[in-house]
Amino acid sequence: GEFTNLQGISTSGNNRIVVADSNNQCIQVFSNEGQFKLRFGVRGRSPGQLQRPTGVTVDMNGDIIVADYDNRWVSIFSPEGKFKNKIGAGRLMGPKGVAVDRNGHIIVVDNKACCVFIFQSNGKLVTKFW
Fold first, then answer.
1. Which of 4, 73, 97, 98 maximizes the CB count within 10 A of its CB?
2. Mean pLDDT across the chain
């Protein structure tokens, strides 16, 4: 767990702390006591790769949702770090922060577009507002 330019942090229901390590192009997972558990992510512009991860959250299934700033999309990974899906490609300009509501909607703040996007977990846009 050596960090370079930490950007986002979240907790999960199974007592884990999830950190977006932007310059290392990865996500790191720790126990609530700070014990290293998992690291995933490699630099790149293909689905499943990361290019400046900034925001991170964990949904009710334990999936790790990452705002990928330079790739201009949000990536969804399993709790073990396996890539599942990307959403927001072609819509997002600079996703910075990400959250999940109780309905499972993925809420993204885009600092380049200066707006908030709300997506269904399958990637369908629900709404956006400025």
1. 98
2. 95
